[in-house]
Amino acid sequence: MDLEEYQRRARTWLAANAPGARAEGASAEDGVVVAKDFMARLHDAGYSGITWPAEWGGQGLTQAEERAFAAEAAEVTLPTYIFSIGLGMCGPTLVDLGTPEQKARHIRRLLRGEDVWCQLFSEPGAGSDVASLQTRAVPTEDGGWVVNGQKVWTSVAQHADFGLLLTRTDVDVPKHKGLTMLIVDMRVPGVTVRPLRDMTGRAHFNEIFFDDVHIGPGNVVGEVNGGWASAVTTLLHERLSISSGVGMSGQRDNPASFESLRKIVDTTDPLVRDELVELHVRTRALALFNAKLSQETKAGIFPGARGSAAKLLLAELINFGADLAVSLAGPEAVAYEDGGGLAGAIALAPAMSLGGGTNEIMRNIVGDRVLNLPPEPRVDKKVPFKDLKVGTQS
Amino acid sequence: MRLVLSSEQHELRAAVRSFLATVSPPAKVRQDMEGPDGHDHAVYRRLNGELGLAGLVVPEEHGGAGGGHADLAVALEETGAALLPGPLLATVFATIVLSELAGAGGMAVKELLPGIAAGTTAATVGPLPGNRGRVTVTADGTLEGEIPAVLNGADAGLILVVTGGGDVYAVEAGAEGLGRIPLTTLDLTRRQARLTFAATPARLVAEGEAAASGLARAFDLVAVALAAEQLGVLRASLDAIVAYSGLRMAFGRPIGSYQAVKHKLADMHCKLEQADAIVRYAAWAADESPGELPEAAALAQAYVGRACFEVARDHLLLHGGIGFTWEHDAHLYYKRAKSDEVLLGPPRTHRTRLADLVI
Ligand SMILES: Cc1cc2nc3c(=O)[nH]c(=O)nc-3n(C[C@H](O)[C@H](O)[C@H](O)COP(=O)(O)OP(=O)(O)OC[C@H]3O[C@@H](n4cnc5c(N)ncnc54)[C@H](O)[C@@H]3O)c2cc1C
């Protein structure tokens, strides 16, 4: 089936099946039920795990189909947000690095929405420099691990059944060499999840405490002390999935989009027209870049670190659009009785520049990995972790 | 929609690139741009004899290769990257106009196109959209008036003139009453001239409604072709500064290892990715989706024109003092980029047009 036909079918299916986002006022629990039910139907229809291997429950197609589907999904509103971390990052990491047992146990359930996953990398002292994290995992006699420490900014953890947890397993070697990635069951004793209110007033992310949490054998992803390589795999998927809009939907409902704005502003004012056209140009430029990446992928050229360029551009576009939208709409955008869509958009915009790696980190990656520029001198590569300065110090 | 090159297009790119590297490397560009005509006629002949670039999008029945605009974009990206001097771009513009008028223009197109497509006659068009110029047709069918700036106006063998009434005439280089006054150009690699017409004999190519609709599409295609050249200028500028950033040392390490430099280069790369996607899209629309062409052409000029200048500017600045010297090539890219950005009118005209189409 050619790509356009594939996309047409997806459009038809979505028009008939998209349940819309959780209704305003519905409880979080109801929202999760609706979302899980939708994921099961999405999987039945063949649109969950489009690029994932068929033997583990995916569809065995390419990123081109995935992006084609994402383009259609962006036109409607889907309740898939709580699955975005699992579908975009954790699942693809398991597909790449998981043992057959891990794949058999988790992937189909993840694709059907039976389990929600979260990514437990960042800590209070380690975000951009995530390899300086301090959460400790110590081996036990049964071949498992005991974990102590704290994670933070963990999206959707309040709904999560499992997490990909990055831990320190050796402090006597340099920081990149003593990390191990583990699968953690979020429902076991010792795991405490506390929702953190973010600047939108809602809790998109959480802080997580691990107190003597026991993880059984068979849950290492990749190698023991080879967790950095596993984390890099996750992060690569993260940038690609953010830029391609995996798990994101409802761009049509974005009040700061070109389409929405042109309906509410005075389009006869030449200055307004010029600002709108700038937004249109940037929106089209990025959409075409993403479409090109998907066509290249289909042709066998893996985008790799160029996904970081797309992630950076998306973050800039979202911030530019929200900023412009509030400015164009004027005082009533920031003082309102109901709605407040644009205030919500400007409050949410920074998330796109911070989550998944900051703009500065994306520029470092494009410079180092795409343009092959010389690296910065590093003071942290050879020092044993226990002697390294990390976190916030005064 | 097709945004990636076919294998034939990859071959075309490689062929044009290696041809230009041999026949018109940077040192030769400098030598030619300072010569009497601003280019080497032998290079132009070979470009057409060996690669057939002037006739690339001319239909086969008119002596061309019958290629698509996506192919043309590949070729012009390379000639842009090499800052090829001479009348190729002007000639390509003329072939686009004539090809689009083939239906409307009777014999004139049939007789004029083959020579241009073969590269024996260099041609040009004026005034281009967004450019001033007022030429009228007198009762006896001769031309009167002036066009202040025409690409390769002094060295082209044939000039297509768009009159104030929107008709298209062809004027031979040696025509009576044709004045050609060479201009000083910012872009040293491309000549322009002021043309004056006083009872100048001219041949009608197309008029009225048919001319108008053919020209509208032709000038959109011209905008796409120019964007392809701009993409090449952008890419070459970025490649040059990326290479230099790895070699130039300051404070004991390469300048490319400093984030102030690295981050700027990363942003320039983002512009390249988007400009590339837009050019491929616009060229695809030119070939396959005529309804999308006006918007795609305006988008291409609105985005790529600006991105090209910004990248060329920053590539010059990041070279430091050497970038400001006459000997270094950076200023040639900078000047080409700025000249191209305004070639089809002040940039705001593309934005206005896009606004009118999408808002
Ligand atoms: C909405 C949201 C959702 C998130 N979800 C998750 C999640 O699900 N799981 C998870 O693990 N994490 C998550 N994060 C965390 C996110 O990845 C980090 O916040 C981010 O990587 C930045 O780390 P930090 O907060 O420690 O800031 P820092 O690393 O302290 O950065 C502070 C500033 O320093 C700059 N900086 C740092 N290093 C460099 C450098 N080498 N060069 C130049 N500048 C530098 C940064 O760009 C930034 O401007 C989320 C964050 C947000 C905002």
Structure explained in plain terms:
The complex is a heterodimer of chains A (394) and B (359). With 394 residues, chain A is α+β, with helices and mostly antiparallel strands. Chain A has three domains: 21-111, Butyryl-Coa Dehydrogenase, subunit A, domain 1, CATH 1.10.540.10; 117-231, Butyryl-CoA Dehydrogenase, subunit A, domain 2 (Beta Barrel), CATH 2.40.110.10; 244-357, no CATH class. Helix content of chain A is 44%, strand content 13%. The N and C termini of chain A lie far apart (60 Å). The mean pLDDT of chain A is 91. Chain B has 359 residues and is α+β, with helices and mostly antiparallel strands. Chain B has helices spanning 7-23, 26-33, 41-51, 69-81, 88-100, 107-118, 208-247, 259-288, 293-317, 330-341, 347-358, and strands at residues 123-126, 134-137, 143-151, 158-162, 168-172, 178-182, 192-200, 203-206, 249-250, 253-254. The radius of gyration of chain B is 20 Å and the shape is globular. A four-stranded mixed sheet of chain B has the order 1-4-5-8. Chain B has a four-stranded antiparallel sheet with strand order 2-3-7-6, with no helix packed on it. In chain B, strands 9-10 form a two-stranded antiparallel ribbon. Chain B is built from eleven helices and ten strands. In chain B, helix 5 runs antiparallel to helix 6 (107-118). The relative contact order of chain B is 0.12. Bound molecules: flavin-adenine dinucleotide. The site of flavin-adenine dinucleotide (FAD) has 21 residues of chain A, from strand 1, strand 3, helix 10 and helix 11. Chain A: InterPro entries: Acyl-CoA_Oxase/DH_mid-dom, Acyl-CoA_Oxase/DH_mid-dom_sf, AcylCo_DH-like_C, AcylCo_DH/oxidase_C, AcylCoA_DH/ox_N, AcylCoA_DH/ox_N_sf, AcylCoA_DH/oxidase_NM_dom_sf, Mycobact_Acyl-CoA_DH. Chain A: Residues 4-114 form the Acyl-CoA dehydrogenase/oxidase N-terminal domain. Chain A: Residues 225-371 form the Acyl-CoA dehydrogenase/oxidase C-terminal domain. Chain A: This is Acyl-CoA dehydrogenase family protein.
